[in-house]
Design brief:
Dehydroquinate synthase-like, alpha domain, about 45% helix, 2 domains, two-stranded antiparallel sheet, 13 helices, homodimer, Rossmann fold, alpha/beta
C-alpha cells in the first residue's frame, strides 16, 4: 500500500493509503498488546457505516473496544463536547495506555485529537479520516482542537497521531456536496505548492468527479506528501512556512464564523476564500487575470461555490482580526505569486481586503 | 539571586528565587518586546495583595496588561472555568504572542497553565507561585490541567513555563493552614530523594514554623532542585521515575475526591497519604516502625493532620482505581525502602491498602 512517511523525529508516523483497507487499522492500534483498550470516537453518520466492522476487527485481535458517538457537524467541535467525551472516557475506564481512534471527518478528527491530547495529559491516537477533506488535510499534521463562539480552532494543541489510515473506498458513501468541498483543499495544494499537480487536476476533472479510485488514491497520496513536506519543516507553525497551508483560510474562517458555521462547508469556504485571496493578490500586483481565471475554472469544474456570503463586510473584517494568525493587530494573508507558489504578506490594508471580497 | 536551571533541551527554563523580588517578573515576560501583551491570571485573594504592583511593574516596561480573576479554591480548577478564561482572553484581544502570567497557588498555576497550553495551541507562560505548595511543587515541571468530577488532574498537558519566579516574601501573607499544608510536600522531598534534607528539616523546625526567610529560601531552592532532577530525567512521566513525586498521592487523590475537594487542602491530603504509604510499606516489609515514627514526628511538628478522613473505605479503593497512575486495572504505589529512597510497587492487594488506611 502507498505510504507517506511524516518525519517528525520522535513523533514520526506513517500515513497508509489504500482502497478497502479500513479494517487493517487494527494493526495500527497496537491491538496485539495485552489488554489493549481502544476507544473509537466517531459521529452517528459514520458510526452507522463503518464503526461496527472496525470495532469487530479490533475485537478479533483481543482488544477491548468502546465506541463514543457525537452529533455530526461543526457544532460538535466545542469545548462542551470535549468535556462530555473526557467524562465518557473515564466511565469506560480509559487510562494512559488507551488508544483513541478518530473515525470520521475533520470535526471528529480535531475533536477526538484534542480529547486524546489532553486526557490524562495525552493518549496515543490513530486518525481514520472518512471525508476527502480530512484525508487530504486535517488528519495530517497534528493540529487538533475545538472552536470557541468567537472563532474557529482557538483552543487546541499540536498532537501528532501515531498513525493515519486512509481508505479511499469510504469516499463512495460521501454526499456529493461534501466530496466537492474536499476538492477545494486539493486544488489548494496545486496552487500553493505544485503547478504540475494543478495541471494533473485540470486534466483529470472527469475521473475526479466520478471518484475513480485509482485517481483518488494518487490524488490523496500527493496531497498528503505535499502537506507532510510543510509540516516536517514547521511542525508548530513557528517559521511561517506552515502558514502557506492557510491559503484562502483567513477569508474562509471569517465566512464560516459570520454564518454561524452552518451555511458553508469548510471546503466551500476555502474555495470562496481562495478566490478572494487571488483577487487580493491581483490588486497588489502579484498575479494577473489569467491566474485567477485558471483557478476559477478548476474550482467551477468541481462545482464549488465562489460567491462571498451575503453578510456585512465590516463584520467580516472584524472577524479576520480575531483570527489566530493576526500578529499584533496586523492582518496577514497567504497570496500567490504564480501557480505553485505563495508568500506570506503582512500589513494588507482593510480597503484592499474589502475590494477583494467583491467578485 | 539563587537560580535553579531546569534543563529540558529546547524547553529549558530558570527558576529564580528571592525575597521581595516579585516585580522583577517583568523582565521574565519579554515585556521589552514591542506591544507585548501580558495577561495575569490570578484568584481574587491573591489579586488583592499582589496583582496591582505586578501589573504596574509590567506596564512601566510598556506592556499591555490585563488581569483575569477566578474564584479562589479547587473548584476553579475545572474545564468550565478554562472555557471562561479562553473566552476572556479572546475578548482582551490575546493572540499567539501573548504571555500568560500565572500568579497564585497550585490551582491558579495548573488552570492558567492549561489555558496557556491550549489557547491558539499554546502560549508562553510565566509561573509566579504564591503559596509554599506551589513554590516547591506545582509550579515546577510543566504539569498543567484541570479536574473532572470523576477525578483530579484528569485533563491537561505537559507544558513548560518559560520562567518561574519565586518570592518567598509573599509567604508571609499565607494563612497558617495553607503554609503548613505546603510543608507536607517539603517533607516528601526528604523522604523520597534526600535523607540529608530530611535531617535539615528536623533540625530547623522552629525557624520553619516561624517562616524565617533565609531558611525558606534555602528550603524552596532545595525542593525545586530535587524536583527538577526528576523532571529532567522523565519530563512526560514515561520512564516511571517521575512517579516517585507521587509518594502519598494515590491515597491523597482518593481522600480529596471522596471529600469533594473541600475538606482537605492538597498538602494535608499528602501528609495523610504519606502516612498511609509508610504503613503500607511497613506491611509489605519494606521499612520498619522507626521510619514511620520519624516521618510522623516531623509531620506532627509542622502540625499536619494525619488521620484518614471518615469516609467509606471501599469508596476510597474504588477512587484509587480511577487514578491516572492505574495501569491496566492494577494499583501501584510509591513506597519507601529507607529514608531518601522510594520505589514504584505494582500489584498491591486491596486488603493491604485497606489495612494501611487504619492508623
Amino acid at each position: 500500500m502507498p505510504t507517506v512517511h511524516v518525519n517528525l523525529g520522535p513523533r514520526s508516523y506513517d500515513i497508509v493509503i489504500g482502497s478497502g483497507n479500513l479494517c487493517h487499522a487494527a494493526s495500527l492500534c497496537d491491538a496485539e498488546q495485552d489488554d489493549a483498550q481502544t476507544v473509537i470516537i466517531t459521529d452517528s453518520n459514520v458510526a452507522e457505516l463503518y464503526a461496527e466492522p472496525l470495532a469487530t476487527a479490533l475485537e478479533e485481535l483481543g482488544c477491548d473496544v468502546a465506541v463514543l458517538e457525537v452529533e455530526p457537524g461543526e457544532p460538535s467541535k466545542a469545548p462542551e463536547v470535549a468535556i462530555e467525551l473526557w467524562e465518557e472516557l473515564l466511565d469506560h475506564g480509559a487510562d494512559r495506555k488507551t488508544v483513541i481512534v478518530a473515525l470520521g471527518g475533520g470535526v471528529v478528527g480535531d475533536l477526538a485529537g484534542f480529547v486524546a491530547a489532553t486526557f490524562t495529559r495525552g493518549l496515543r491516537f490513530v486518525q481514520i479520516p472518512t471525508t476527502l477533506l480530512a484525508q487530504v488535510d486535517s488528519s495530517v499534521g497534528g493540529k487538533v482542537g475545538v472552536n470557541l463562539p468567537g472563532g474557529k480552532n482557538l483552543v487546541g494543541a499540536f498532537w501528532q497521531p501515531c498513525a493515519v489510515l486512509i481508505d479511499v473506498a469510504v469516499l463512495s458513501s460521501l454526499p456529493e456536496r461534501e466530496y466537492r468541498a474536499g476538492l477545494a483543499e486539493v486544488v489548494k495544494y496545486g496552487v500553493i505548492q505544485d503547478a504540475a499537480f494543478f495541471g494533473y487536476l485540470e486534466s483529470h476533472v472527469g475521473q475526479i468527479n466520478d471518484r475513480d479510485p485509482n485517481v483518488l488514491a494518487h490524488l490523496v497520496e500527493r496531497c498528503c506528501r505535499l502537506k507532510a513536506d510543510v509540516v516536517e519543516q514547521d511542525e508548530r507553525e513557528e517559521t511561517g512556512l506552515r502558514a502557506i497551508l492557510n491559503y484562502g483560510h483567513t477569508f474562509c474562517h471569517a465566512f464560516e464564523s459570520a454564518t454561524g458555521y452552518e451555511q458553508l462547508l469548510h471546503g466551500e469556504g476555502v474555495a470562496i476564500g481562495m478566490m478572494c485571496a487571488a483577487r487580493l493578490a491581483e490588486r497588489l500586483g502579484r498575479v494577473d487575470a489569467t491566474f485567477i481565471e485558471r483557478q476559477r475554472k478548476l474550482l467551477e469544474a468541481f462545482k464549488l461555490p465562489l460567491d462571498v456570503p451575503a453578510v456585512d463586510r465590516d463584520e467580516l473584517i472584524e472577524l479576520m482580526y480575531r483570527d489566530k494568525k493576526v500578529e499584533r493587530g496586523k492582518l496577514r494573508f497567504v497570496l500567490p505569486t504564480c501557480m505553485g507558489h505563495v508568500e506570506l504578506v503582512r500589513g494588507v490594508a482593510n480597503d484592499d481586503v474589502l475590494a477583494a471580497m467583491e467578485g
